[in-house]
Give the backbone structure.
Amino acid sequence: MPDSTFLDPEALARIGSMELVAREVVEGFVSGRHRSPYHGFSVEYADHRSYSPGDELRALDWKLLARTDKYFIKLFEEETNLRAYILVDCSRSMSFKSGELDKLSYGSYLAAALAYLMIRQNDSVGLVMFDREVRNYLPPRSTPVHFRRILEQLDRKHLGDDTNIGVILHELAERIKRRGLIILISDLIDDVAGIIGGLQHFRHRHHEVIVFHVMDDAELTFPFDRLTRFKDIEGSARVVANPNTLRQRYLARIKEFTERLRGECFERNISYNLVCTKQPYAEFLAAYLDKRARLG
Amino acid sequence: MTFLHTGLLWLLPLAAIPIALHLLTLHRLKTVELGTYRFLFDSYVQQRRQIKFLEAILAMLRTLFLLALVLVVARPVMKPWAGLFGFATGGDVILIVDCSASMNARAAGMTSIDRARSAALSVAERLAPEDRATLVRLTTKAEIVFSRFSSDTESIRERIESLSTTPARSNLFTALSDLFGSSAFRKPGQTVYIFTDCQSSAWRELADQGLSGLIPAETHFRVVNVGASRPLANRAVVGEPPREGRVVVGLPVMLRFKVVNHSESEPADVTVGVVVNEREIDRVTIGLKPGETSARDITYTPREPGIERCRFAISGDGFPDDDAFLFTLNVVPAIKVLIVNGAPAKDPLENESLFLVTALQSLPERPADPRSVPGASPLSDLGPGSHFAKSLDVREITEPQMNIAALEGASVVMLANTGALNQQHFTLLRDFVSSGGGLVVFPGDKVNPELVTKQFLAAPMAQPSQRPRGKPARNTGRDASPTEPLVDVKLLPAAGELNQVGQYEKLATIDFAHPVFSVFDDPKARYLTTSTFLRRFPIELGEDRTNTWPLVHFSNGQPALVESRCGHGIVLLAAFPATAKWSNLPLKPEFVPLVLRMASYVMRGSEIEVPSVVSPGGAAEISVAFPWSPVTAKVLDPAKRGTAVTFERYEGRFAGAYENTAERGYYSVEVAGGSSEQPRKGLLEFAVNLSPEESNFAMIGEENLRDWLPGLDATLIDASTEAQQLRGKVGNEREIWRPLIALMFGIIAIEFLLSTLGGIRDKDAVTTTDRVRDFNPGTWVGRMTGAGQEAEHYP
């Protein structure tokens, strides 16, 4: 595997045995491990049914005919290739950190791991890095070389300016024609309605959408306790305040923000996952994949 | 406020530390670039005002804490009475202490005079040795107690503590006029303290007349109210001396009292007790509205002669000095009138004294006389007094019965047609008159005019005569010669015939200015003018007479009644008898009041006269009859201190005055005199009460000072009962570091609570209890200064 700061061998070892199972059938031309919306020739037998005039004869199960002297058609689960797009928010707000990793780095680790898993499954993975506009676009591929390119892009740590997630999502939704998996890794610090609108656009196009809402622990818990000058990371606004007097109301607003996103995503059948950078990303991903596998 | 360690006040700038720290903190603040800034800012905007306010409060509390700490260390001292002592050293300070009666009002266990002394002492103790202090005792006038440099503190203290009140009111106008009228006090820049209860009566004359131009410029007035902060709701009783000039045994005397409710808002039911010689003779309850005065008359009849100490008394209140009005009744025995009947007869109509006795014993109230003229004064009002007749002890004797014993104690002798008096009788009568007795002579058919003239009327007297009592001087003022007769007239043989009814004389010229006849001066009634005299004695007045003059003339110009002053007595000589034989005058209704007035006019005056009540600070005039010569008197005040009285001759008597009426109570007058053969002693009493104005506690205000002392620095300082209860005794200073420390603890508590406001981050966050437990001052200071914290910036 290419040498990249985003591929922790230990983490890879943990998640290497897991498979990412796509929840919905996607179109693909490479048979893989995902259920295709279309039944066709596939490696794995699924089931039998009685032959009906007009069915393809090649689908007849001759062995069963020999045994039973009846005509049955084989049903196969044709697994097609997953086309996944990992959308990584690289706006300035993603640069905040209170621990070892800032949100962008954490998200990049997440993206790299996901990309590796899917490429290993012969899924196609594309990468989009955006802030106010799309900064990098790598179309989905499933080759190791492509994976290298993905890592190179993630490695660059390009921090942009402010962001307009909703607009970007709409733009990408128009751009990505074929049904697939959209993984959004962002702190979603933007207009919630716009974000939801963009996500809704993807859903409208029958994409499966997974949102990893990356937030720093300090943003979630507001641990400040002395008079501090707070500055907008994406602007020039600043305020000097005693955090003790603002904490309660701030946390309430953060909670309201995350709950709203969660609720809106749930209504649209979008998988919403709040990720705290305090939690090791491998641990998070393992838990997430495990949960996903159990949910089928 | 002052401080014991004033030098430590240089630490006061330390109170600015919180502000400096705040500014320093701002400068070295940690900067956090926050991605979720928008959520923070929304919260901040909603709470910005509250946050700013809280921060300001915290900064202020911290500053206040340090300020309080510095003040505590400097040990502040509160001087609530600092305004009282603001005078420059090296100057003149005048302490005027109101010693009027109202200063005895008590509140909170102290009288106003006690507080005045205390306040004056406080001021005096703060004087520098180079200050000159003058202590003035304020009553009806200014009494300078001392004026000296204030280095003699002990003596000053003693004089102040010995100040006492009088029953009189104070008169500030007189006091200030006397004070600043003297060149010794007409200096600028003096400070005048007036320790008073601010009773408005003391300022009355000042308000009316002012003192413009009298008080030097730049004089500072400090009026210190040592009374109450509000007018005392006081009730008082005042009385009047008995209207009757002489209180006689058995003669009812009218006693009048007034009760005043000085309260402006509270009504009162006041019970007045009338006490005579410690025995209550009457009790009256009177309901009074606020500010109302009510008067009552009480009739009292003394049963025995002597001194009776009396008072009107009400129940006590905050000012008990005016709850009793003292007075005395010097009761004399009944006035003895001796009628010498020269022709007693069993037939009353023939009795020479019938009409006289009847007139002298007439009742004061009589039914309406049908003979009275409509519109004229009622005849009953023409007498000397409604009860005068009742005060007379009328005795009738015959000529042989007249002797020294019979004359003993007599005040008036009336001779009714006494033709058989001998030389001895005449001598007795002359002595009687010269010693002050009154003689009325009604000659009749029994009288030998020539004999009476020679041996009685015109006989020379042994004692010189005096100027007439109560009349304009008819004499030259010289002592009469020893040959002065009893009555300088000649009584001529009777003229006129009883059976010639058509020939009679009438009374023509009447001296209506004379006290006997003044009440008959009524043109409507034409009193006395209808009397007819068929027979009468012509009276020839002496050519060089000096002690005799006519009062009434007949129509023929001859005197019908003459008056003579002889010695200390008075003689009225009529030209007719007091019967209906020679005239119809006794039958006239005017006869009764005429006889009574004649008796009242000539009757012997009181041996000793002393008023029943004397005003506080006033003079008690003592009058002693001349026969008491040589006279001495001593007055004992309520404290039994005796003072001799000096007498002078005045209008036929000895007159003296006693002026030490500074105490309320009963005063005794002991009079001694007379010759060694006939020594005389007398004892009377009078009472001194409070000045009535002292009962009204209406107060002045500071605005009044500005009006009455224009252009001067005048301040009213409240050192009343209530003020001293609030601020402590005048002059008291107290340290206030204890309250400051309590304040500091309060500040700490509030600061702690406010600075820990704000929510708990999460359930695992450090609680307030943990913070308190783990409180590390060093950490606290570090947090305050932001020391060791670098600003965090993100590229």
